[in-house]
């Protein structure tokens, strides 16, 4: 029987990282999580997550984001998936250097998972984020490292929690822009499954995988109306218009200017759906037609039955 690729995940304890680790294990890959050393300050939730990982068969390797230590762990893997947090995006240069020297890595998936950095021209505070991710892509290409970039669009549970606040009894929902622009909301588990499948797929070599499944393209007004049907009552909408978002992105100090710039791009302007998928890009649900991804309707049903706790909104705090 062919040996399954060994996958090392950086940032595997993180918001999207833990879904990637679970997806890797569920698809039968020997999986390593490279994580910062546990200390007495480590949160009990993280210690518990590591116990869960270990019982699932994950190998935990503790170390810092330092070149020599990264090189050692990379030598033990075939595929590297990075889900490092946004502030650590440039630390991926050390991963790139280590992959170059190790010479054994068949595929590198850098930390991206959001808007397609080459195809979006948002307001400056968000643009700075995307430019760093683009710089990493250019470095990977220059190093000749086999890669796949994952454009997950919006993490669905993350944004449904942010927009609709299903975990509390709300009467009022804020709409960014006029609510008509189309966005794409993908369930985190599905983004993770698409990522691990793509990392092993010869068709995605040196390509961008865009997760744009038809059932997950939705405007904010449509999302609210679907949620109203599930809840059996209507909400008052407060519109935060595009000009107001632009003003806030100019007047708020960093990092508070970042969330409004993301909301402006995704929901007011509809940047995620403003471009056609190009020749060097692939669409995930077309590439994996047998994969039963979660539609927005199913996701809202999950939220209705078991409201998920809101995540810490790293970019939104
Ligand atoms: N599309 C979307 O809707 C969306 C939403 C949010 C984020 N994103 C993107 O998804 C990617 C991952 O974001 P995330 O929110 O999942 O990340 P996260 O949970 O904030 O953090 C991921 C991991 O990064 C590592 N990390 C954090 N701080 C660090 C530090 N100071 N030094 C070294 N390592 C550190 C940690 O791993 P260890 O503790 O194991 O070392 C952490 O678990 C980013 O590229 C982000 O921009 C996309």
Q: Secondary structure elements and their pairing?
A:
Layout: E1 7-10, H1 17-26, E2 31-35, H2 44-56, E3 59-62, H3 67-74, E4 79-82, H4 92-102, E5 107-109, H5 124-142, E6 148-151, E7 154-155, H6 156-164, E8 172-176, E9 182-186, H7 188-199, E10 207-210, E11 217-219, H8 220-231, E12 236-240, H9 242-251, H10 257-268, E13 281-283, H11 284-287, H12 296-305
Parallel strand pairs: 1-2, 1-4, 2-3, 4-5, 6-10, 7-9, 8-12, 10-13
Antiparallel strand pairs: 9-11
NADP nicotinamide-adenine-dinucleotide phosphate (NAP) binds next to β7.
Radius of gyration: 20 Å
Q: Main sheet?
A: 5 strands, parallel
Number of extended strands: 13
- Helices and strands, in N-to-C order? EHEHEHEHEHEEHEEHEEHEHHEHH
Shape: globular
**Range of strand content:** 15-25%
Q: Outline the low-pLDDT stretches.
A: none
Percentage of residues assigned to helices:
40-55%
Average residue pLDDT: 95
* Strand order, largest beta sheet: 3-2-1-4-5
GO biological process, one term: lignan biosynthetic process
Organism: Phaseolus vulgaris
Keywords: NADP, Oxidoreductase
Protein name: NmrA-like domain-containing protein
Characterize the structure shown.
- Helix 2 (44-56) links the parallel strand 2 (31-35) and strand 3.
- Helix 1 (17-26) packs across helix 7, helix 3 crosses helix 4 and helix 8 (220-231) crosses helix 12.
- The protein has helices spanning 17-26, 44-56, 67-74, 92-102, 124-142, 156-164, 188-199, 220-231, 242-251, 257-268, 284-287, 296-305; strands at 7-10, 31-35, 59-62, 79-82, 107-109, 148-151, 154-155, 172-176, 182-186, 207-210, 217-219, 236-240, 281-283.
- With 317 residues, it is of the alpha/beta class.
- It is globular and about 55 Å long.
- Keywords: NADP, Oxidoreductase.
- Residues 4-299 form the NmrA-like domain.
